[in-house]
Amino acid sequence: MSSDSEQQPQIVSAESDLPRQVSEAVSEYHAKPGTIDTDTRLASAGETEAMWPGRPARRSVIRSLTRSDADTKSRKEAASYRGSSATSHTRRDLLTGDWTIFAPKRDQRPNDYEAAKQPSVATATAHSALEHPTSERPSVDAACPFCVGAENRTPEAVWSAKLGDQATAPLDSAATRFAGPAVEVVPGEQENWDVRVVPNKFPAVSPCDAEKGGHVDRHNLFPITDVVGGHEVIVESSLHAESITQYDPAMVYMTLLAFRDRIRHWRQVRGINYISVFKNCGPEAGASLRHSHSQLIATSLMPHHVRTTLLRCEHHRARTGCTLACDLLRAELAERSRVIDRTDSFVAFCPFASRFGGMIRLTSVEHQPHFDLMTETSLDQLSSFLWRVLCWVNEAFPGKAFNYLLHTCPPGGQQPEAFQWSLDVFPRLNKTAGFEWSCDCMINSLLPETAALRYREIARRHDPRNVLLTR
Which residues, 6+ apart, have CB-to-CB distance to 91 below 8 Å? Predict the structure, then answer.
C-alpha cells in the first residue's frame, strides 16, 4: 500500500524552482569562459579575479565595448520597437517580474474633480453626495456626458438595459420577497435606457483589431509587447448622482447584469486572458467623472500577481481536493468574529488579512468560480445585498471615497474549479506611502475584527434578522 506522500501529486512552485535555475545558469556560465558579461568587463582587475577566479580582466573597457559582437547585437535590439504613442503596450521589469501597461491616451480624459479644486459653493455641493449618499435625489446634469440626452458625447453603446414593470408574483410559495424587476436588455442602444455600457473614449488598452498580431520584442533586458483587449464604461443610471446608493437597488441589479453579460462576451474573445471589473467612487479612489459608473478592462495580459494567485489556488486544490477560498470562507464562518452579515446565498465579512482598512468581501456561500454563470435570481439577491453593504461603508466612513473590485476566474485560468469569485469593497482611509510602495506590503491600521464589529452595529440597525446569526 502506497503512502500518503506517494498518493499526493508533487507540486513544485516557480519560487521553489529558482535555486535550481540559478545553479544551472552559473554552471552554464562557467562552461563558457570566453563569455564576459558587462558587470565583469566594467570591474577592475582585482574585482574580476575575486568574482571569477582564474578569469583575466579586460584592460580597456572602451575597446572591449567597441569590439564586442554581443554588445553590437544589444545596441541593435535597443533600437528596435519600443512602443507607440498611438497604442497601449506593456513593459516588464525583470527585477520584480511585473508588467506595466503604458496607455498614453489616458491623460486626455476629462476630470470633474480637477475643475473643482478651488473651494467654492459648487465644490461643497458636489461633495455632499458622498457625505450624505441618500440625501440628494438623482437628476439630469446637462454638462455630464453620462446623463440621458448626452448619448452623442460617448461612443455607441454595446449593451443597454431598461427597467420594465415590477414583477408581482413571488419566486415560490414560501418566498418572503418578490421576484426581481423585469428588464429589457439589448446588445446596443435603446431609448429610455437605465443602464448603459459604452467603450471608453480613453482606453487603457488598444482595441483587439488595432494591431493584427501586435508587436512583440523579446529583448533580454527590456521585454515589451502590445497589449490589446477592451475597455468599457458601465453607466449605472441615466440620472446624475455620485454614489450608487442614491439609486434604487434595481439600478444595482442591472449593473450586475451588465457585469455578467460583458464578462461573458469578453471571455469568448480570442486572446483575452484577464478581465477586471472595478468601481472608483471619489477622487481619492481614482474617479475622474462624478456620475456613478464602473469599468471593465479585458486584456491579453495576465498580471503577475493574478498568475501567482491562480498558482496558489491550483496547488491548494491539488493538495487538498478543496478550493482555497471556500476553505477560508468556512473558517471565517466558524470563527464568526469577522463575519458581518449573511443570507442563504451570500456572505459579507472582513478578511483575516485585509490589505485595506474597512475592507468587506462578498462572495457566494456555494462554490462558484465564474461570476458570469450567475442566474438573474441570484444577481437580484446579490444586488440588494451589495446595496446594503455600500450603505454600511458610507455610514461607517461618511464622505470617504471607495473602490470595489470584482474577482472572477480569468479566461487564462487553467483550473477554474480551483477559483471562487468574490467582490471586495474598501473605503480609502489611508494613503499608500513609501514603505508600501517600496516592498508592496500594506500597513493597515484598522483591525478587521474592529471593522466587522462597527459594520455589524450598523447592519443590525438596518436589518437585525441575519446579523444576529453571526453573534
Answer: 83, 99, 100, 102, 222, 223, 224
Residue type, 265: H
Q: Which residues 6+ apart lie within 8 Å of 128 measured at CB?
A: 135, 136
Q: Strands 293-299 and 274-281, how do they pair?
A: antiparallel
280-284: list long-range contacts, CB under 8 Å, 24+ apart. Answer: 280/401, 280/403, 281/130, 281/242, 281/243, 281/244, 281/401, 281/402, 281/403, 282/130, 282/242, 282/400, 282/401, 282/402, 282/428, 283/113, 283/401, 284/400, 284/401, 284/428
For residue 200, CA distances in Å to 203, 230, 292, 402 come to 5, 8, 15, 21
> What is the rounded distance in angstroms from the CA atom of residue 133 to the CA atom of residue 246?
6
C-alpha cell at 161: 438595459
- Is residue 147 within 8 Å of residue 239, measured between CB atoms? yes
* Each residue's pLDDT tens digit, 339-388: 999 999 999 999 999 999 999 999 999 999 999 999 999 999 999 999 99
> Position 375: which residue type?
T
**Grid coordinates belonging to 460:** 443590525
238 beta partners: none
pTM exceeding the 0.85 threshold for the entire prediction: no
In whole angstroms, give the CA distance from residue 364 to residue 345.
6
